[in-house]
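Please review this one:
***
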Amino acid sequence: MDEYKQVIIVRKDLEMSKGKLAVQVAHAAVDATLKTLEVKPEWVRNWVEQGQKKVVVSCSSESELLKAYDEAVKLGLPASLIYDAGRTELPPNTLTALGIGPAPSSLVDTITRKYKLL
């Protein structure tokens, strides 16, 4: 059986507080999982059975995050862009994070291996 994982990419250029960053990562993880359940429930099942591996990496800009999203969509990977509501630190509709998967690690890695761990 393939290894499955979920990768969350967050923007480090926004300089979010640790709490804000944690919440954006959580939003991305939940939303991407729900999207995956709709299209590839077996991927979620396999991922859960393997311990729900998650990796958080960072990128340096909104355009870099959007490029990763486009790459995920082209590969047929469930992906979720997270926009902040603007109630605390950031202006409304600020793009903060991208959740990819859970999906086969080999597919996710083709997009995310170039990013550094957070």
